[in-house]
Amino acid sequence: MRKLKALLASAVLASMAVGGIATGQEGEAAAPPITEFPREQTLIINNPEQPATNPPMFNMWVAGNGAAWSNGLHQLALDTLWFIDPDAGLDGALYNQLAAGPWEYNEDFTEMTVRLREGILWSDGEEFTADDVVFTVETQMATPGMVWSAPFSENVESVEAVDDYTVHFTLKQPNSRFHALFSVRWNAAWIMPEHIFSEVEDVTAFDFNPPVSLGPYTLHSFDPNGYWYIWEKREDWDKTAIAQWGEPGPQYVIYRSIPSTDNRLIEMVNGNLDMIHDLTPEGMFSLVQQSETSRGWFPGFPYAHPDPTLPMVIFNHQNEMFQDKRVRWALALMLDARAISMASYRGAATLSAIAIPPTGTHPRDYHGPLQDWLIDYELDTGSRTIKPYDPTIGLQVADMVRPQFGDEVPTDEEAIRTAFGYGWWKQDIEAANELLEAAGFTKQGNQWMTPDGQPFAFTLNTFTEGVINRMGTIIAQQWSQQGIQVTAEADPQIYASSLPLGNYAAATAWSIETWGGDPDLSFFLDSWHSDYLAEPGERQTARNWQRWQDPRLDEIIEEVRQTEFTDPRNLELGHEFVKLMVDEMPIIPVMSFNVFSAYDTRYWTGFPTAEENPYANIVTNWANSKYILTQLKPTQQQ
């Protein structure tokens, strides 16, 4: 251990010797000037992005401008009306941020009124008012190419400032989720300073440098090569919306781009990082062994934070091979979830048999309450009726990793289900074979043949690296072992073109993203309506990459559209959606996208934890991370 730490220290010293400015050469950049700031007042955060391509650009309202999304700008300086945390929240997941209270719709959801907080100041002393909100919407509607131009233009008939603290929207059509455009999960429509941008001739060419802040921090300095940004707490932080949750602990916050996950580990071991966005599974296991003060979301194995996204097998339903649900179910029953967990995450996966990511409040709202229904669920194979669900899969994975990780693995059954998932579908090769035979497939030797006599074969597009690549590889292997010729293909364009254009047969990716901290499914579900289904070869509206349609799904979506966001009926509709997804198996849910975020308690305490206080997502580039800063207290260690 002493030798290892010496090597780590020498690596850091070597990088520091380059100086405080990035070299611009390929490889890791030099660290920011950390020693210039009191360490007990400074929080150092890993920015998971590559260095910004246009570091001095802070105008995030212009699409494709090269500005960074994870450098602290929208986390610390920008603000909007509401936040919905993917986890439990400080006092519930829904935050009234710049808004003084929840959205107010008329009866048919064609109008929305927002009442704003009073006394909120921009960092230059100008008061935040309704004029800023109106200007933000009208400017983007009038300026194609701005980030929220299209959704505002599609939805807004007019917007007006009723008075300094009241905004009224008239919508082009009923929309009970219009407020979602101003509701941050990762980001949302940030409010522009009217008094700044109204004086600009071309808002798309304006770099907004230095940015005028509506949040508790202002820009201190940044690396011209984009590797680091430093933010300083405003003296008048109490004139920002975050003040309702207390004073942010750090006086300074440094965001560092460190592309190498190995170097992130090195920097945390040496006390030069307090929060890491993501490590590999192996990197996380190594970190907790090397550093007594470092940990992940869970106190022990599996460490990682389950994000509100659901990695899955996505079938292209416009491909004839996957249009029979018996085929999709057969492919599901050929899989061994335990092996998938071990191959992708080395066992640190949070599995989900249903089409809801097992994160935030979802286990309480969906996975737990639906266990009895899943256990009793029956599937007709064409030869017999089976019960395909195994509620003990999560417990089995925990037992599999316990010999290696020992006491790090929880033993309490509820804690295991929270960390590893509840259950999954049994690997039942006999039932899978029966389903394929019932669908008209035949087996010649060890090769399944389609009803038209062709080999059952296809390519499975997957990520180029990481846990999803590993997941895709093992799934392709499991299918191939059962007589289906499946080749896993690393696809660098999987989200850019393959999924949107339907240029794939099946893929491991995700088409389900949720709020996480709220049971409402509108974050992804509306775009699954058949009205948005593209013809083969045409670009599909996000996020129905599977191009699946069902009149029962449309009915659920149409009722969601007419149901207020906080109405308990939304949870009932969510349960109806889950049951439909189980019956039809249009995609095969696998697990949440677990992120090996880490934090160090050497200098700061108060971070959210899975077991005691899961108030926020600890992934550092999400804008809700600002709430973490209000809970941090220095340890006073020098």
CATH superfamily of the domain at 306-594: Dipeptide-binding Protein, Domain 3
User: Kindly state the mean pLDDT as a whole number?
Assistant: 93
So what's the overall shape?
Answer: globular
Measure the end-to-end span.
23 Å
CATH topology of the domain at 306-594: Dipeptide-binding Protein, domain 3
Rg estimate, integer Å: 25 Å
Low-confidence stretches: 1-27
Give the strand content.
15-25%
Secondary structure tally: strands? 29
Name the CATH architecture of the domain at 306-594: Roll
Strand order of the largest sheet: 23-22-24-15-25
Main beta sheet strand tally, sense and closure? 5 strands, mixed
The helix-and-strand class reads alpha+beta
Question: Can you count the helices?
Answer: 20
Instruction: Give the helix proportion (percent range).
Output: 25-40%
CATH class of the domain at 306-594: Alpha Beta
Structural overview:
The protein is α+β, with helices and mostly antiparallel strands. Among the domains are: 82-196, Alpha-Beta Complex (Dipeptide-binding Protein, domain 1); 306-594, Dipeptide-binding Protein, Domain 3 (Dipeptide-binding Protein, domain 3). Helix content is 29%, strand content 17%. The strands form ten sheets. A five-stranded mixed sheet has the order 23-22-24-15-25, with helices on both faces. Strands 1-11-10-9 form a four-stranded mixed sheet. A hairpin with a 4-residue loop joins strand 16 (379-380) and strand 17 (385-386). Helix 6 (261-269) packs parallel to helix 7 (281-290) and helix 9 runs antiparallel to helix 15 (466-481). The radius of gyration is 25 Å and the shape is globular. The chain starts with a helix and ends with a strand. Residues 1-27 have low confidence and may be disordered.
